[in-house]
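quick one before i forget lol
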Amino acid sequence: MADEPTPPPTARRSPSRDVAPPPSGTLPATARSGPLSHAVFRTTRLHRAAAAHLLRPTGLYTGQELLMMHLWDHGPQTQAELARLLDAEPSTITRMVKRLEQGGFVRRHPSPTDRRVMTVEATTASQALRCQVETAWEELEQTTVAGLTDAERNTLTALLRKVEDNLTHALGSWAPSE
């Protein structure tokens, strides 16, 4: 039924089986050597699902709002710059931009200095989305940190930045040298 409300992401059942997700403390035997990595993976998946739920009324898919944020804040960007900023494959950015262009949220045009390079800019119509995206992100933030004190929020943010730095450094050192 189309009028039924969508359940919150944490209450959804897997589309591949009609079984509730495992309790948050359940750890597969093969993940016992990496309980933190398992927790980060599960949390990331749930956070993305919650973002998708909150962004649905805007017509944006998760990830598209990040691209729009860069355009709103920094003006026109090349697709290559967007791929670098979002740490995404150029083909992913191309698909994302095409969808946003079809929705009337961005416009692409050749760079004035290199006609092979496409520049992407937010349209005036996309400005109406900005408030909706900010509201969705505010709700996502409140949901994510509900029950945490200000000190816990600050500590969590600092720790996640350290984890991000560790992973960025590791990925850089694992990259094949050319």
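fyi The longest helix spans residues 150-174.
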